[in-house]
From TrEMBL:
Organism annotation: Ambrosiozyma monospora
Top-level taxon in the UniProt lineage: Eukaryota
Descriptive protein name: Unnamed protein product
Amino acid sequence: MNSNLRGSLANSDSTSSTPPSKRASLNSNSNNKLSTANNGSRLSMRNSTVPQAPHCPASNIKVYVRCRSRNQREVKENSDVVVSTQGKTGKEVILKHGNTTKTYTFDGVLGAESDQESVYEGVAKDVLDDMLKGYNCTIFAYGQTGTGKTYTMSGDLQTNINGKLTEEAGIMPRVLFDLFGRLSKVPEYSVKVSFIELYNEDIIDLLSEDDGRPLKIYDDTNNKRSVVIHGMDEVYIKTPEEGLDLVKLGSNKRKNQD
Ligand SMILES: Nc1ncnc2c1ncn2[C@@H]1O[C@H](COP(=O)(O)OP(=O)(O)O)[C@@H](O)[C@H]1O
Ligand SMILES: [Mg+2]
């Protein structure tokens, strides 16, 4: 059996899963979400042995919030800490303003104590599991500039002297290494990567060697729930390192370097 699996990683945080029957769809209403990202990199995988996933309920969106601690500038300015969380992993964000306290509940809240590994384990790993079961998946990070989208999604893209990721590696490099680790047990597969940036109204192919001419987006005539980005480069990779190189290449080409 051949199945074409898709995972999307976007800088504005959410994760999603689509049942195999809806696999052609880029945007599905069957999702897992995390908050923190702003350009999109997509990872597609063709695997000849994965089983069909069971039917997915209509909505499978999960929303996570990651709160960072104050940076040096904010500490220097003595800015108030108005947000409190329940440690490394909780479900509530508590906002205090004067005598008013408001509590907001999410699928998960990763406090300032959370590190890159716990974010990957708590948010992204399950999405990769779902993708390998045959669902279309998206991890999308959104938030104000400076809140930590790039740190969460990319983080450190370098490997250390032993070829391993560092503790600061974000979701994208961790997905690449985890994915290839799991695929090493699968006899036949292929993985391809695309990386686009939505900047103002333009879609820019960050892996294209062309002049950065904007790509065109169309409704998919075969699938009303889906869209097609015409002419987007899709690059086959055989190792996580090749994927990392593409993420670095594309990241350097982003118009928005925040
Ligand atoms: N959870 C975190 N722990 C430590 N540093 C962080 C964290 N989140 C963000 N930062 C730092 O804060 C700064 C802004 O984060 P960044 O990811 O660039 O924000 P954004 O992409 O949302 O504009 C960067 O210097 C980043 O390293
Ligand atoms: Mg950023």
